[in-house]
Design a protein that fits this description.
Elements lengths: L9 H8 L7 H16 L3 E4 L5 E2 L4 E5 L8 H11 L18 H10 L1 E4 L7 E10 L11 H11 L4 E5 L7 E5 L1 E9 L1 H7 L8 H5 E5 L15 H15 L4 E5 L1 H12 L18 H16 L4 E2 L1 H24 L5 H18 L5 E2 H9 L7 H10 L3 E3 L5 E4 L9
Parallel strand pairs: 1-10, 3-8, 3-9, 5-8, 10-11
Antiparallel strand pairs: 1-2, 4-5, 6-7, 12-14, 13-14
């Protein structure tokens, strides 16, 4: 099915609407991507890997310490909830704020939608959209039974069946189920509830973790800047997307580009040891993002080269920050990291005959302990407190004795 009328880029509309939101650009981007992926439901697909259908549903986790703007997830939930289809009904089925595994299955079972094709019998689907600012509510601990359900639903099987020991319904069978999730996580939650062994499980390869360490400071008083108009356009577009149905096609150059990237090993591949299992799903994730880019850009069901390039750019950018999550999971304060830096530099300085220490050496040391976007700030704090000093006119440093720290 093709859409009608003017079709502006939905990701761009989302950025206009969220311009004053106190959250990072990368979290804004992935919230917008999730908004579109959820709206597509199980009604849009493409064929690529092994000829099977790939749907655009995503599990996206916005990761960061408190105060980094994960509350933008509530905006996603509001849009999904408020969007109406052209007949005047609610366009999507949105999950409750607090769910157990059992209640999630119950809500999914009730999230029924029916597509009536031009020929053949009606097609029944069950698609549930989950927007959880605190994903910990759904998964308080790493529970294998809940994880197995999340894995199964991500795969878009024809049916999901389970037997219950408690409750009124002992047998649950859901036809054509699908789950879309955007959630918020703190690094401390991952550190406490995701032991090392879990990074080799199926759930990890299905989650796109998007990290930011701190939200930008925004003006307290700003004008509308087109946000109201953008909101109306977004709601209208979501209603249109809720009617789309069918298989997306690839232009020749788009198909060649995604295949070339896949056969080359999907460069650049994340190198962190805890992302080895995740790396096995990157082609499928990129294909999902190609579909999201297309639906964002146009009503035509044709994936073009620009969509492949944008999808890979989105994915690679998010992946470039993933190692920062594991550094943040160590939970060290800036003071502790600076103390380690001073000890390291003093030891290196003495061992090398008090030769100047080059900036790349310091950056490399800090890159193993803090997120990349915090390295310069840590160095500035250390310099401002007279813990380290730059040789005048150079990019080399030396450590100051402890009795000089904090002394002008």
């Amino acid at each position: 099915m093709q859409g009608n009328g003017y079709w502006s880029d939905l990701v761009s509309e989302w950025f206009t609407f969220t311009e004053t939101a106190r959250t990072t650009e990368i979290h804004r981007l992935w919230a917008g991507i999730s908004l579109i992926a959820g709206a597509c439901g199980r009604r849009v697909w493409a064929r690529a890997v092994g000829g099977k259908r790939t749907y655009p549903n995503l599990y996206v986790m916005l990761v960061g310490p408190p105060g980094t703007g994960k509350g933008i997830i509530d905006e996603i939930k509001a849009f999904w909830t408020d969007a109406m289809d052209p007949t005047g009904g609610h366009a999507f089925k949105v999950a409750s704020d607090s769910m157990t595994r059992a209640s999630m299955i119950d809500e999914l079972n009730k999230a029924t939608s029916v597509h009536i094709p031009k020929e053949g019998p009606p097609i029944t689907m069950h698609s549930l959209l989950v927007a959880a600012e605190e994903f910990q509510v759904l998964l308080p601990t790493y529970d294998p039974s809940t994880v197995s359900v999340l894995n199964a639903l991500w795969n878009n099987k024809e049916t999901h069946s389970e037997t219950r020991r408690h409750g009124p319904a002992k047998e649950v069978k859901i036809v054509r189920p699908q789950l879309n999730i955007i959630g918020g996580m703190q690094p401390s939650y991952l550190a406490e509830h995701f032991p090392d062994a879990t990074w080799n499980t199926g759930l990890i390869r299905r989650i796109i973790m998007v990290y930011a360490s701190e939200a930008p400071r925004k003006e307290l008083f700003t004008g509308d800047n087109g946000a109201a108009r953008a909101k109306n356009r977004i709601l209208q577009r979501l209603g249109q997307i809720s009617l789309l149905y069918g298989q997306m096609k690839w232009t020749q150059d788009a198909a060649e580009k995604i295949n070339e990237w896949h056969m080359a090993g999907c460069p650049p591949e994340p190198g962190h040891t805890k992302l080895q299992v995740y790396n096995t799903s990157r082609t499928e994730l990129a294909i999902k993002l190609c579909m999201v880019s297309t639906i964002s850009r146009t009503a035509d069901f044709t994936i073009e080269l620009t969509d492949v390039n944008r999808a890979i750019e989105w994915l690679v950018e998010a992946e470039s920050h993933m190692p920062d999550i594991f550094r943040a999971m160590q939970g060290k304060s800036d003071a502790a990291v600076i103390d380690e830096l001073h000890y390291h530099m003093m030891e290196l300085w003495v061992r090398n005959g008090k030769k100047p220490i080059a900036t790349p050496s310091i950056v490399h040391f800090l890159s193993t302990r803090v997120a990349a976007d915090k390295i310069q700030r840590v160095m500035q704090i250390a310099e401002g407190a007279n813990i380290i000093t730059r040789y005048a006119g150079t990019e080399t440093w030396y450590p100051r004795p402890r009795h000089q720290h904090g002394v002008e």
